[in-house]
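Example for tutorial group B:
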């Protein structure tokens, strides 16, 4: 029993030593965890990037449409004479003509003979009328004497009137034959460009046969197909930039909007006046397909650099740089384009700091190194495209 009592203080001392040692170890471990190891390697950035901020700009509002280039008005030039042989054709397709210019000539010998015969008939009728007028005048002088009966006097006066009528009929026949002789030359009814020709030398054509087609005054127009919901935005006089299928660009203006809408397609035609064609070297031709942009003014827009926008899975994203040098992927809705700037319709604040270069190689949460910021580009002077053309497919 004495031995057990002697061992108890020794056990207490040993227990105290163990407790003190455990506390010291715990304190040392906590300090080691709190103090970073100077030999530990810090995380490396995924990419070195430049940054930029969104900027405000005034962008043009464009409405894009498709359509065909056609003649403003097309005149059909046909023969007015009947049964005459064509002897000379003086113009061809693409020639520019003026009003009254001779286009073709018919053989006129038969018509000239008819004119001569009609002129002789007029001379004969005038001679008969002169004789009848003299007889009627003498009969009237004898009316008071009773030498001639009233019936005889009336006959002389009737013969006079009949002779005058025959003179008028002969003169009308002469005018008709002279008109036929004039029609032996086919002339242009207006100035313009010959667009088609069916006239052939030696052919005997009937009255009304088409021989030429002409674009009146060389004027062309673009007939744009526009949906009914957009018609109210296109008043007459709206400026339009038309691009033909051969790349030629023409400036025009809206002349009128069709009064009806196609019930099948729910679209209507918008008629746009184009500069007059100048002949065979005209930059645009009737029948060409063309697309155009209607200028509807400008509006304020928030824009970002084109290189900041990344398209993934059909959606547009930008990468916002956070204060901890990590990036966050932000989904945006894009609109119009102006040079190297893209309009942002939704999803972005104006004070965001965005990754400019290298955005396509980043993922959400990546650590990056910023080297410099890009100044916002000036957003004036370059053509813009419609939002429908720039918005990503969803």
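The residue assignment follows.
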């Amino acid at each position: 029993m004495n031995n057990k009592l002697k061992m108890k203080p020794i056990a207490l001392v040993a227990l105290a030593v163990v407790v003190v040692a455990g506390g010291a170890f715990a304190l040392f471990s906590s300090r080691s965890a709190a103090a970073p190891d100077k030999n530990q390697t810090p995380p490396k950035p995924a990419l070195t990037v430049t940054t930029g901020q969104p900027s405000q700009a005034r962008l043009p509002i464009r409405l894009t449409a498709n359509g065909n280039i056609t003649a403003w008005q097309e005149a059909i030039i046909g023969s007015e004479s009947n049964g005459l042989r064509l002897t000379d054709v003086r113009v061809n397709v693409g020639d520019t003509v003026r009003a009254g210019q001779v286009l073709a000539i018919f053989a006129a010998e038969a018509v000239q003979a008819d004119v001569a015969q009609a002129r002789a008939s007029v001379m004969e009728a005038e001679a008969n009328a002169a004789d009848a007028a003299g007889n009627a005048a003498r009969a009237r002088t004898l009316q008071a004497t009773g030498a001639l009966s009233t019936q005889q006097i009336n006959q002389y006066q009737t013969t006079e009137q009949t002779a005058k009528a025959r003179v008028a009929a002969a003169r009308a026949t002469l005018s008709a034959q002279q008109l036929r002789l004039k029609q032996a030359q086919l002339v242009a009814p207006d100035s313009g460009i010959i667009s088609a020709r069916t006239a052939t030398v030696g052919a005997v054509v009937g009255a009304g046969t088409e021989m030429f087609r002409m674009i009146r005054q060389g004027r062309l127009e673009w007939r744009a197909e526009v949906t009914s919901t957009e018609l109210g935005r296109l008043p007459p006089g709206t400026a339009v930039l038309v691009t033909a299928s051969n790349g030629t660009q023409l400036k025009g203006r809206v002349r009128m909007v069709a009064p009806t809408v196609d019930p099948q397609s729910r679209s209507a035609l918008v008629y746009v006046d184009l500069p007059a064609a100048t002949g065979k070297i005209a930059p645009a031709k009737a029948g060409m397909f063309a697309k155009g942009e209607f200028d509807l003014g400008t509006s304020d827009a928030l824009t970002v650099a084109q290189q900041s926008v990344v398209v993934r899975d059909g959606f547009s994203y930008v990468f916002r740089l956070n204060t901890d040098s990590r990036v966050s992927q932000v989904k945006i809705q894009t609109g119009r384009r102006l040079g190297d700037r893209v309009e942002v319709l939704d999803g972005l604040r104006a004070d965001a700091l965005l990754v400019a270069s290298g955005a396509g190689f980043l993922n959400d949460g990546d650590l990056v190194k910023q080297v410099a910021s890009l100044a916002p580009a000036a957003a004036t002077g370059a053509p813009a495209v419609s939002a429908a053309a720039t918005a990503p497919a969803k």
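The chain has four helices and 22 strands. Compare this with the pattern of hydrophobic and polar residues in the output above.
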